[in-house]
């Protein structure tokens, strides 16, 4: 009688492990939700690169992962995505296994190909502007340290759009 019980418990555990989401699966779900939610018609293409990060603050309540807040460090996020709050649909429990609170940072770069040029027809990106843009990807500034144990950085999401009109 003990052998069938052990056999049953083994398969029950195996079944539970295969159903658990991995961080990579959650990241893929987030990427899918955001890429299907792009609506950047309002963006004026005067620069070639927009960067920002989306911060998802999580807390564990009664054993469940709850989204406490979704924020971003640049209002451009509202122009690129129709509704960032769609990210509340994701199950984030894999990020809170041994923690009661954590943050997820999603770096986003929005690259505009064939954007408007300056008066002499040159396409330029300011080096100083580029440095600040790279800091914004990770929710930092050159003066603010952004690393800590309670932050999970996902892979950067790079979006490239072409503004040229082709015949």
β-strand amount: 25-35%
Could you state the order of secondary-structure elements as H and E?
HHEEHEHEE
Beta strand count: 5
CA-atom Rg in angstroms: 21 Å
Q: Given the helix and strand composition, which structural class is it?
A: alpha/beta
What distance lies between the first and last C-alpha atoms, to the nearest angstrom?
75 Å
Shape: globular
Mean pLDDT: 76
For the report, how would you describe the main beta sheet? Answer: 5 strands, mixed
Helical stretch count? 4
Helix content: 25-40%
Could you walk me through the main structural features you see in this protein, from its secondary elements to its overall organization?
The protein has 167 residues and is of the alpha/beta class. It is 28% helix and 26% strand. The protein has four helices and five strands. The chain has helices spanning 2-19, 23-35, 76-80, 127-137; strands at residues 49-61, 64-72, 101-113, 151-153, 157-162. Strands 1, 2, 3, 4 and 5 form a five-stranded mixed β-sheet that branches. β3, α4 (127-137) and β4 (151-153) form a beta-alpha-beta unit. The longest helix has 18 residues, at 2-19. The radius of gyration is 21 Å and the shape is globular. The termini are far apart.
């Amino acid at each position: 009688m003990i052998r069938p019980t052990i056999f049953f418990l083994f398969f029950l555990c195996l079944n539970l492990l295969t159903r658990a989401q991995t961080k990579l699966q959650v990241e893929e779900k987030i990427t899918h939700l955001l890429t299907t939610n792009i609506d950047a018609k309002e963006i004026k293409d005067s620069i070639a690169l927009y960067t920002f990060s989306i911060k998802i603050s999580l807390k564990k309540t009664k054993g469940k992962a709850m989204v406490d807040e979704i924020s971003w460090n640049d209002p451009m996020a509202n122009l690129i995505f129709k509704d960032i709050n769609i990210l509340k649909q994701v199950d984030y429990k894999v990020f809170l296994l041994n923690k009661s609170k954590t943050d997820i940072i999603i770096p986003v770069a929005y690259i505009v190909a064939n954007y408007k040029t300056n008066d002499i027809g040159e396409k330029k990106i300011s080096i100083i502007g580029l440095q600040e843009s790279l800091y914004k990807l990770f929710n930092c500034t050159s003066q603010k340290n952004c690393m800590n144990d309670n932050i999970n950085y996902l892979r950067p999401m790079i979006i490239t759009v072409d503004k040229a009109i082709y015949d």
